[in-house]
Specification:
The protein is mostly helical. The chain has a domain of 151 residues. Helix 7 packs antiparallel against helix 10, helix 7 runs antiparallel to helix 11 and helix 9 runs antiparallel to helix 10. The protein is globular. It starts with 19 loop residues before the first helix and ends with a helix.
Length: 375
């Protein structure tokens, strides 16, 4: 029987067809993402102030809710809380600024005498002229660059920076007030567009973020007040000058995680040197003892009850925040990390189809309560 010739089999590759609609959608999404990034970078200043305002509003929320429990309307409660916070800031400025103004005035009044003694190589700073000839170098620099240009440009930069900081502080204050007044209403309006099945999860996430961030900021402020008070008491007991302004500086620097207490100790120790080495050793030792109490007792209590993050997470969040936003970023690093932990826990529970640990614990407690006390 004659053999039939076989035709070689041809491998045909599968053809992939991309619809025009898919291509257009992809291009629109990419362009939208790029536009969003550009707008975010352009408005990073106001966005940073808005984030700060939201965090401050969350910190004021416990006091607002406490007033609401006493029968005061939310608007009045926010107004009272905001007024008390503004009075605290004004008292801080009143206690800190006058001593600084007095010192600057005293320095300007004695500046000619100090310069004359420095030129002659006398006084505590006379060694600068005897060893390094700083007066001759200063005169040469002024003659080369011009005295007006040499001093006017730094003064203008300082004035511009002061005005910019003041404007930013006023903006943050008003944004904080508006967020505290309408933040809850905005969140409830957002929940109305969320599907019914996930609405409770969104509400629980918002409540968890608010409790974590607000509790951390309020607790950290309380710890800073304690640090400033303890420092003031130590300085008053050792007769170091300006105990109240230095205590306020310590309270502000104590807000900075990891490095704030060290910077405060250096500043206070430098001022305490005017009273001698023994007094300086007593002051520094007292501050170090308090720092150990704060690091091992107060801060873990605040972290455990609010953000619930590990020491490594604290260090990484502070470093990342400082890299992104400087001092403001370092201050916001820990509360943002706590908020991200709350959101990630909710997302993980949603993926697994179960309640988060806290909600499950509450359900078990309610079930046990019903078993012990049947209706």
């Amino acid at each position: 029987m004659p053999s039939v010739p076989r035709t070689p089999a041809t491998d045909t590759a599968p053809q992939v067809t991309v619809a025009l609609r898919t291509i257009v959608t992809f291009v629109v999404v990419v362009l939208g993402a790029v536009l969003l990034l550009v707008l975010t970078y352009a408005g990073r200043g106001i966005l940073t102030r808005l984030v700060v305002a939201v965090v401050l509003a969350m910190a004021l929320e416990p006091a607002v809710q406490q007033l609401q429990r006493r029968g005061i309307g939310r608007g009045y409660a926010v107004g009272i809380t905001f007024a008390l916070a503004a009075l605290a800031v004004a008292a801080f400025g009143y206690l800190l600024i006058p001593p600084l103004v007095d010192e600057v005035t005293s320095f300007s009044r004695h500046a000619p005498e100090l310069l004359q003694r420095l030129t002659q190589g006398h006084g505590k700073l006379g060694f600068l002229e005897r060893r390094f000839n700083v007066v001759e170098h200063a005169r040469a620099s002024i003659a080369q660059h011009g005295g007006a240009t040499l001093f006017a440009r730094p003064a203008l930069h300082a004035a511009a920076g002061l005005l910019s900081t003041g404007a930013a502080a006023v903006t943050v204050a008003f944004l904080t007030l508006f967020v505290a007044l309408g933040g809850r209403a905005w969140f409830e309006a957002f929940l109305q567009v969320v599907p019914d099945g996930s609405r409770e999860r969104w509400r629980r996430s918002g409540r968890g973020v608010s409790n974590a961030v607000g509790g951390y900021v309020a607790g950290n402020l309380l710890i800073s007040v304690i640090a400033g008070t303890v420092t003031t008491v130590i300085l008053v007991a050792t007769h170091v000058p300006y105990p109240v302004p230095l205590g306020l500086i310590v309270a502000v620097l104590d807000l900075l995680p990891l490095v704030g207490a060290t910077l405060a100790t250096i500043i206070v120790g430098a001022v305490a040197l005017t009273k001698g080495v023994p007094t300086t050793l007593i002051v520094v030792a007292g501050m170090i003892v308090y720092q150990q109490i704060e690091n091992n007792a107060l801060q873990p209590l605040v972290y455990r009850r609010t953000v619930q993050v590990s020491a490594l997470a604290v260090a990484v969040s502070v470093a990342a925040g400082a890299e992104i936003g400087g001092i403001v970023g370092a201050l916001l690093g820990i509360p943002v990390a706590g908020a991200l932990k709350v959101v990630s826990r909710e997302l993980l529970s949603w993926r697994r189809g179960e309640d988060p640990p806290e909600e499950a614990t509450h359900k078990h407690r309610r079930a046990g309560h019903r078993r012990r006390f049947p209706s």
